[in-house]
Amino acid sequence: MKKDDHLFLIDGSGFIFRAFHALPPLTRKSDGLPVGAVSGFCNMLWKLLTQARDTSVGVTPTHLAVIFDYSSKTFRKEIYPEYKAQRPPPPEELVPQFALIREATRAFNLPCIEMEGFEADDIIATYAKMAVAAGGDATIISSDKDLMQLVGPNVHMYDGMKDRQIGVDEVVAKWGVPPEKMIDLQALTGDSIDNVPGVPGIGPKTAATLLEQFGDLDTLLEQAETIKQNKRRENIIANRDLVKISRQLVTLKQDCPVETPLDALKLEDQDGPKLVAFLKAMEFNSLTRRVAEATGAEAAEIEPAKVDAEWGSDTHGPDMETGGEDTAKEASADTGGGNTPADLAKARAARFAALPINREAYETIRDIDALNAWIAEARDRGLCAFDTETTSLDAMQAELVGFSLALYDEDEKDDGQAIRAAYIPLTHKAGQDDLLGGGLAEGQIDFDTALAALKGLLEDESVLKIAQNLKYDYLVMLRHGITVKNFDDTMLLSYALDSGMGGHGMDALSEKWLGHQPIPFKEVAGSGRNMVTFDHVDITKATAYAAEDADVTMRLWLVLKPRLPAEHVTTVYERLERPLVPVLSRMEERGISVDRQILSRLSGELAQKAAGLEEEIYQLADEKFNIGSPKQLGEILFGKMGLPGGKKTKSGQWSTSVQVLDDLAAEGHPLPSKIVEWRQMTKLKSTYTDALPGYIHPDTKRVHTSYSLAATSTGRLASSEPNLQNIPVRTAEGRKIRTAFIANPGHKLLSADYSQIELRVLAHVADIAQLKQAFADGIDIHAMTASEMFGVPVEGMPGEVRRRAKAINFGIIYGISAFGLANQLGIERSEAGDYIKRYFERFPGIRDYMEATKAAARDNGYVETIFGRRIHYPEIKSSNHQVRSFNERAAINAPIQGSAADIIRRAMVRIEPELQAAGLAETTKMLLQVHDELIFEVEDGDVDKAQTLIVDVMENASMPAVSMAVPLKVDARAAHNWDEAH
DNA sequence: CCCCAACCGTA
DNA sequence: GTACGGTTGGGGG
């Protein structure tokens, strides 16, 4: 190296972490290998080299090296064992990428340098000094403040991500001291991330002022007695020795015994084919194309390189030694030495289950500085768990009372400090139940101030927020103008992984995975009459409860997240679960208009009809009784009146179901049909016309349902409070309820529903020629089934024949049994059995599919939808015939119902971006989902355009993941109310 | 006050 | 025969 030569030193390790956190969290190769950081690294290198070789702009490197950390065992640990002792391990997805990034560096024909016992920063310092000594310049590609001490007339820094030069002036502007004082400044402030001790209460601003005043650190320490501020003076004097150690820790070693001489770092020409081969192996298609173009390599003729990196194959990365060794050790203890993703995930689960929870260590954060410090740490670590505490389970009514955070520190695990959690109370009230007070409790951060800080964290794309049942917190934050970005939801992780294996609530998951029972809510807030809202809970108790929630959530994430790739459900989670959180939150927030007057009028009508029927019933029974009591009704019908009782219920009571009552009515008894009619009236009244108005939100005047993403085993949503997925439609009387669901003035309700989606899915998965043909031709599927089975032509087919075929088609979807079909059609078991036999003769493919599905459920313990969603049946091998048969039917139904559910989920995820792109997002709002139907509220002028777009998105929702063998058909209609639109 | 059974609304 | 949630009555603690 000679005068005017220019050495570029790339801080590889620093870059890996920035690339990892700045990019979408999970970029993967087709085999599931995470490569997001590799991709970021390659793109950055290519950009840098392209610019660097362009002599028309800026500086041109003559020499270049990429420097990595080797391990955490450096000479600094000798000086101060606590140094970097609380670093978290790198994220699981990052681990396999360390080796790949070194390979990438070599593929770029660049020297890749690392040394045992030294940090990348020391090597960088050494080479920078060597370059300057040789008369050249050095540019460090990094934005790490630890490197800023090296900046000088001939040493610069460059932040590649922000495209920003960092020279002497920039250092002074940012830190208030010139580069040569950076060591003194860092020694004073310390560094909580690397565990460098400093002086408590001294941050960068104070440190800069002190250094300005005293000139340098030694003078400051000598004359510390002269500092005016009492606290500051005492702290500095008390920590003199520690500060000296800190200075040693932050001072970069400029004389590492580097093996590679400076001249060997000379920048070589690009080896086009070699680089293209590597990029192809990584499946970085656009970069491959660009590199091929620039280097003249023929991409099509180059074979992808053999890249040998798998999960856990090479864990060389900064601070990996402890974590890596432990993981391997536990893997061998638990799984016989396996190193597959599943083994690693298992080992990890065992590790966190064994980690004690320490409620005593939870902090209560009461001032903004402490909160900001926690948020800063969350940023540095790139992830945190988060939970809100409010006054209500209803996210639309809930008022924020406080929130909690949890952070993860790998190396503290032995004493139960691996995870730190804190509660930040915001609006807890002082005293209890006092009429005078109602004021805020002492020691809480100002609400708006805290919320602004929280907003910064939650909206920060580079920090992963982990929550349990995030949709709740997401909606609460949305109502405060905060949009959570970059998140995971432990409930949804569990759902994607373990659907069918029990509930996904936090208490159940904590018990299952951590063997830990969190403090029950009722122990904190009471229950029933004595329950208080969370703002009346004592802050100390609230801290224990709330911080524990964040703590447990973090642990669950650590256990569950690594299982995703190991069990091949990453795509299910990322495409079908997680993206629904914002979509459903917005739907819930919008709500739907319900006309009180209509409901009130209907309620009156129903009351009258029910009262009339009541009179008649008492007359016929010759006494008054509670018609709503099946027990009393049974006694009247089958005891007193002596009607022939048919079925009995499980508990030995006479059954009074519609089935039984209808049969009695058919025999000519007048009372049973009155009962059936009375039940219908009272059901409509109590469940709908009387209950719905109570759900009208006081502020929005609309009804906001709540959707559960993890309530069903199959992937369907569930709606509650109120359930808007079971609004009546089958009877004329019931449909009147739907006329109360209305669009705002100037708008229409648009309903779009999939036609026969489950039978279409069946035709696809079971690959049935006749069914596929029928759907392709658009003919009546039930009539086709009847025609095949009974040899009756479709033209002029009797209604009863078609009805039976329809029941059979539904039966197939439900995992048919002769018993069930007989019940449904009111025929003998043997006759139903004959139908089924005949059906399978005409459609043998269906029988094959059903047998194959049962076999798969037995062999694997689960079945899958066409998009890979898994539904587990742990009891499929039960020796109890009833239990086993039930599981078999459910296993047959799940791929069909679940695939249909996946399809509409995909449509829901896509619709809003598509509306946005078409300029319809402001006028077209998705409000409700009813399994195969979506309901929108659309401005009159855009109804036609919106309808076309929505139908198109829904009909193509399976693409490109699955190309269906039958077309999906969507019917849509718009009207002022839901009844007419449906 | 809590939980369960029975019943019934939807796809 | 599949998948849900809500209301009511009624029993037990």
TrEMBL record:
CDD domains per the UniProt record, alphabetical: DNA_pol_A_pol_I_C (cd08637), DNA_polA_I_Ecoli_like_exo (cd06139), H3TH_53EXO (cd09898), PIN_53EXO (cd09859)
SMART domains according to UniProt: 35EXOc (SM00474), 53EXOc (SM00475), EXOIII (SM00479), HhH2 (SM00279), POLAc (SM00482)
Stored InterPro entries: 3'-5'_exonuclease_dom (IPR002562), 5-3_exonucl_a-hlix_arch_N (IPR020046), 5-3_exonuclease (IPR002421), 5-3_exonuclease_C_sf (IPR036279), DNA-dir_DNA_pol_A_CS (IPR019760), DNA-dir_DNA_pol_A_palm_dom (IPR001098), DNA/RNA_pol_sf (IPR043502), DNA_polI_H3TH (IPR020045)
Domain Exonuclease: 382-566
Domain 5'-3' exonuclease: from-to ranges: 2-268
Subunit structure: Single-chain monomer with multiple functions.
Official protein name in the record: DNA polymerase I
Lineage, top ranks: Bacteria, Pseudomonadati, Pseudomonadota, Alphaproteobacteria, Hyphomicrobiales
This protein's encoding gene: polA
